[in-house]
Design the sequence.
């Protein structure tokens, strides 16, 4: 087996990070939001569009040749550009691909970005709101699903949560600990979509959606975009903001399916994490903060196990210990995550990782002495995974 | 708001799944069975899901299995299911190996558990399609 190449460790850096307005941005288009985030990321890096020669993006599921659409809007020709198709795992994959393109000499400054208008597009009519679909009808299963009333990503992840509860004794108290910790972080984030404090009573009194998930186990429907600028570590040193080094990355895709084997309780984060740890040359204990793909509370719990922060089956005890809170052992999703800040398919997890490692936050939001951040992406039909390990420069 | 007359969506069979739905109409659960490696697979596709062989046949399976996992819909996603709420959607693993998505019927949703044995029941929809669903099987020693 060819090992992940440590030669690329710390060869590239994130030189700038930005986001658009987040949450409910009525009438927004995903492309306009992404352009806003890219503009902010370029400003952050002290770069101009003319410096960019690479573009790797993703947008709503029905966007055809997304990188062309955003490139046209920005007025940008690129030496290297493409759109990715791994769902919520795409955004980290974009950063990994940028590193590869830069080291292959195909580009020197790569913009990686994702934008969506999931709130606006599902709030155009009551029917659209009830349907809650961000994917066009013709891309949904025509059999072995709809006739049973099986719709949406909530149920797919709830299957995993239910099986995990059955095998390991995980409870909704454990999921509540995650929802409450991330909401507490969001109360400190002025840009977060939901900043109202969440109590344990609120969590358990909320309406059930698809059990074992209630309302607060589910991420938000958001408008929003994020972008980062990837370039060589050498070049990044001379730019406006303090760079953050790309120490490692990994990817794994359980293409056999979420329903296959134990994929829903032992996820692709296991192999993706191993690859990233090997490239980075670190162990889980060296990670100071994680920004995990939190489409649902359960996904945080299972990833903590799969990334080796605790043993399989012990995720419940780990999250109940308070580890994920700012000031805890492993502060997680310190912006509020997709459960409370905004759901931008993992892109804001990267942005938040960068900001934490720069140490630019006020004390109440800052992970103390954060040197290494692990960031995850998960998506597609629940089986694509990617991992990014960033390091303070 | 929601349409009280809305009907549930019917499965739209593909060329590959047609025999499955035809079998269901006769209250038989048919699955593709590989002659090369001996395994069953689902959903149907033009090559064995395990060994890529094209040497296979439709064979009847027992219709017995266990619940691998399940969820309970409390929120309405489609108006056709309004009267069913809350309803159980499960992943059932058949004795022959394949897993399939289905409904658990004839049980209170509060009583459904992972790993309990289930057996197929055929739901004849008046629109001319039969939809295989599952019921919790009688436990050994329980009254028949």
Sequence:
């Amino acid at each position: 087996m060819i090992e992940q190449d440590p030669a690329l460790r710390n060869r590239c850096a994130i030189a700038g990070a930005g986001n658009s307005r987040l949450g409910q941005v009525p009438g927004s288009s995903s492309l306009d939001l992404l352009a806003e985030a890219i503009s902010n990321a370029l400003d952050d890096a002290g770069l101009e569009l003319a410096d960019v020669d690479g573009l790797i993006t993703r947008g709503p599921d029905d966007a055809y040749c997304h990188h062309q659409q955003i490139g046209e809007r920005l007025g940008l020709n690129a030496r290297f550009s493409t759109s990715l198709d791994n769902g919520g795992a795409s955004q980290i994959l974009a950063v990994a691909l940028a590193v590869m393109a830069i080291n292959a000499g195909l580009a020197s400054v790569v913009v990686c970005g994702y934008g969506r208008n999931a709130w606006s597009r599902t709030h155009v009519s009551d029917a659209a709101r009830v349907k809650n679909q961000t994917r066009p009808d013709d891309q949904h299963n025509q059999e072995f699903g709809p006739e049973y009333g099986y719709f949406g990503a909530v149920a797919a992840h709830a299957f995993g949560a239910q099986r995990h509860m059955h095998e390991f004794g995980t409870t909704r108290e454990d999921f509540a600990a995650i929802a409450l910790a991330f909401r507490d972080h969001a109360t400190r984030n002025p840009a977060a979509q939901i900043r109202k404090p969440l109590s344990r009573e609120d969590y358990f009194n909320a309406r059930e959606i698809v059990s074992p998930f209630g309302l607060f186990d589910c991420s938000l429907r958001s408008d929003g975009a994020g972008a980062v600028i990837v370039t060589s570590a050498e070049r990044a040193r001379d730019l406006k903001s303090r760079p953050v080094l790309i120490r490692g990355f990994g990817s794994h895709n359980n293409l056999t399916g979420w329903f296959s084997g134990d994929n829903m309780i032992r996820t692709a984060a296991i192999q993706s994490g191993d690859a990233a740890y090997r490239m980075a040359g670190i162990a889980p204990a060296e990670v100071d903060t994680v920004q995990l793909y939190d489409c649902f509370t359960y996904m945080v719990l299972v990833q903590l196990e799969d990334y080796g922060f605790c043993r399989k089956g012990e995720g419940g005890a780990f999250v109940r210990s308070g580890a994920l809170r700012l000031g805890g052992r492993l502060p997680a999703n310190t912006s509020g995550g997709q459960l409370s800040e905004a759901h931008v398919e993992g892109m804001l997890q990267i942005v938040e990782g960068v900001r934490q490692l720069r140490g630019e936050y006020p004390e109440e939001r800052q992970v103390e002495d954060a040197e290494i951040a692990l960031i995850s992406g998960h998506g597609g039909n629940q089986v694509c995974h990617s991992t990014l390990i960033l390091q303070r420069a | 708001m929601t349409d009280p007359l809305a009907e549930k969506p019917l499965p739209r069979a593909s060329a590959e799944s047609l025999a499955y739905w035809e079998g269901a109409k006769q209250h038989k659960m048919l699955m593709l069975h590989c002659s090369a490696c001996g395994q069953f697979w689902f959903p149907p596709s033009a090559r064995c899901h395990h060994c890529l062989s094209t040497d296979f046949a439709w064979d009847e399976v027992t219709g017995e299995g266990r619940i691998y996992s399940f969820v309970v819909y409390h929120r309405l996603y489609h108006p056709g299911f309004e009267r069913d709420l809350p309803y159980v959607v499960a992943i059932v693993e058949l004795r022959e190996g394949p897993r399939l998505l289905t409904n658990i019927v004839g049980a209170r949703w509060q009583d459904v558990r992972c790993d309990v044995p289930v057996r197929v029941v055929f739901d004849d929809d008046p629109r001319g399609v039969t939809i295989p669903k599952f019921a919790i099987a009688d436990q050994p020693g329980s009254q028949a």
User: Anything to note?
Assistant: The two ends of chain A are 31 Å apart (CA to CA). The CA atoms of residues 252 and 272 of chain A lie 5 Å apart. The first helix of chain A runs from residue 30 to 45.
